[in-house]
Amino acid sequence: MPLSLDLSHFARELRWQDLLDILLVSFILYRFFLLIKGTRAVQLLRGMLLLLLAYLVSHALGLNTITWLVQSTATMIIVAIPVVFQPELRRALAHIGQGDLFRGELLFPRKSVSPPRTIEEVVTSVKYLSRQKIGALIILERHTGLAEFIETGTMVDALVTAELLSTIFFPNSPLHDGAVIVQNDRIAAAGAVLPLSEGMRQGGTGAKSQYGTRHRAAIGLSETTDALAIVVSEETGTVSVASGGQLRRHITDESLRELLVEAFVQPRKPNSTQPLNLLFLPKKTDAERLSSK
Questions:
Q1: How far apart are CA 133 and CA 230, in angstroms?
Q2: Which residue in 117, 116, 120, 136 sits closest to 239, CA to CA?
Q3: Which of 55, 63, 208, 271 has its CA 20 to 30 A from that of 45?
Q4: How many angstroms separate the CA atoms of 225 and 194, rounded?
Q5: Domain boundary among 107, 129, 150
Q6: Sheet containing 179-183: which strands, arranged edge to edge?
Q7: Per-position DSSP letters for 94-154, written without gaps between them
Q8: Residue pair 251/232 in contact by the 8 Å Cβ criterion
Q9: Residues 290, 282 contacting (CB under 8 angstroms)
Q10: Buried residues in 80-118 as b, exposed as e (16+ CB within 10 A)
């Protein structure tokens, strides 16, 4: 049979160098996908694959105009890749230089322990900070990785406890002026610097006077990631939560607990960028309080 002849010819011509080449390329691609897993680069990579699919389909069907548009868009994307992927490229080069790319932790990521325990610790800390009117900004990582923001702060890598969170944000402590980023059940970093909301930066003095820097940073991060940001006002002790570029204020302890359970104990799909239902379907009393501000 022709197929069997082709297979036997392929087997005779196959060298051990070819096998080694295939294994090395497979390993490099695998480590690359592990490196970008959970970052914004995944969504951009999906968009590029969709463009490639559109090009193949339009070329096969003879749609010349669509093919030209896709080719032009692909050219612009190739030029923009170094700019768009700058944080991921910087982190990848750092991992390669430090030898982290070939360590076991990237291959076997550390698993999270009991999410309910972490949720209770966060709620307890926020309750204390709110009553004491201590300003705080706590970021809870979901599916989109926050490594580029973690690098701007001080590495902590400690188990989440209410006492540690409250101590970090205690006035005049070295790390109180910044964000705490929580990954799974651990505090990854403290004193992290976050981007301010683009909409509020362009909204004039009215938007800036309504929200403090912590609130604008929380909204800014939630505009570009699916992270959940908890803000405690140092002026009023009001607890606010930002998700999906939106902010809800006057969150009670029980509402915060329910929100965190919905976000982490009953997680949504990784590609979901919509705000949580509990957060952005406020009760009438909450809407009235928001309108009165």
A1: 14
A2: 136
A3: 63
A4: 11
A5: 107
A6: 154-159, 186-192, 179-183, 136-140, 228-232, 239-243, 246-248
A7: HHHHHTGGGSHHHHSPPPP--HHHHHHHHHHHHHHHHHHT--EEEEE--SS--HHHHTTSE
A8: no
A9: yes
A10: eeeeebebbeebbeebeeeeebeeeeeeeeeeeeebeeb
Q: Last residue of a domain, which of 107, 125, 154?
A: 107
- Assess if residue 1 is contained within a domain: no
Rounded Cα distance, 249 and 3, in Å: 68
End-to-end CA distance of the chain: 80
Tell whether the torsion through CA atoms of 209, 129, 176 and 259 is positive or negative: negative
Neighbours of 222 (CB within 10 A): 23
Structure tokens at 9: 């010819």
Q: Which two tokens stand for residue 236?
A: 């009023």
Q: Please check whether residues 122 and 264 belong to one and the same domain.
A: yes
**pTM of the entire structure?**
0.60
Helix (H) or strand (E) holding 239: strand 239-243
Distance CA 98, CA 59 (A): 44
2 assigned to some structural domain: no
- Each of the 293 residues of the chain gets a pLDDT tens digit; together they read 566 666 676 677 778 888 888 898 888 888 777 766 656 667 777 777 888 888 888 888 888 888 888 888 878 877 777 776 666 666 666 556 655 555 544 444 444 434 788 899 999 999 999 999 999 999 999 877 788 888 889 999 999 999 999 999 998 888 888 899 998 889 999 999 988 876 554 444 444 556 788 999 999 888 878 889 999 999 889 999 998 888 888 999 999 998 888 888 765 444 444 445 445 444 433 433 333 33
